[in-house]
Amino acid sequence: MKRTSLTAFAAAAILAASSTIASAHVGVGDTGGFAHGFMHPIGGIDHILAMVMVGLFAAQLGGRAMWLVPAAFVGVMAIGGVVGFSGLPLPFVELGIGLSIVVLGAAVAFGLKPVVAAATGLVGFFAVFHGFAHGAEMPDSVAGLAYGAGFVVATALLHAAGLGIGLLAASSAGPRGETMVRAAGALTAVAGVAVVTGVI
Predict the structure, then answer these.
(1) What is the DSSP letter of 25?
(2) Distance CA 65, CA 114 (A)
């Protein structure tokens, strides 16, 4: 694999390894303004892994899916954020977040290529849980709008990182790049199982 691909994978690994899980969950951490909203998705490895997998999944699908899949996630996540902010209950939020890592990682690992409508539906389903977790911490003030904008921008950037890594791996390393992407998906799915079972 070329140096650029290795650098991209290393950067993603360092970003994920430098995060903690607890700070990205409901009821934890400081919650005010754009910066705090921005840090919420990138402050927990579970959110990072899921967001990057959305981008990798979109890159594997190609075509319209490269923008429709991430856009569907961001759009539905925003709706989930409104639900979380409103105080309405949503069961199994942490389980939904954990399963998103397992399912999206497995989709990348197996190179699944569903039709675009099914792919957007899949990521949209999990986006509800991620959005709810973000929205539940949104401040009940003007700063809440900035907070919401922050977590939307951070999520989009994580999607873009996954998409960029996937496209870079495919263009610069060919089949070896696809193998590395699938391996990353497999490792992510295993990490997701660890999250769901409470190991990490």
Answers:
(1) S
(2) 10
DSSP 64: T
At 33 the pLDDT is 85
- The residue with tokens 């919401």 is 148
Closest alpha carbon to 189 in 33, 35, 56: 56
Distances (CA, A) of 35 to 55, 80, 158: 23, 20, 15
Which two tokens mark 56? 């990798």
* Cβ-contact 89, 34 below 8 angstroms: no
Q: For residue 184, what are the CA distances in angstroms to 12, 77, 198?
A: 10, 24, 21
DSSP characters for 123-176? Answer: HHHHHHHHHHHHHTT--SSTHHHHHHHHHHHHHHHHHHHHHHHHHHHHHHHHHH
Dihedral of CA atoms 79, 192, 104, 11 in degrees, nearest 10, equals 100
- Per residue in 63-79, pLDDT (tens digit) is 999 999 999 999 999 99
CA distance 148 to 63: 29
* Structure confidence by residue, pLDDT tens digits, 174-199: 789 999 999 999 999 999 999 999 98
Task: Give pTM, 2 decimals.
Answer: 0.83
Query: Is 140 a residue whose pLDDT tops 90?
Result: no
Where do the domains of the chain lie? 44-197
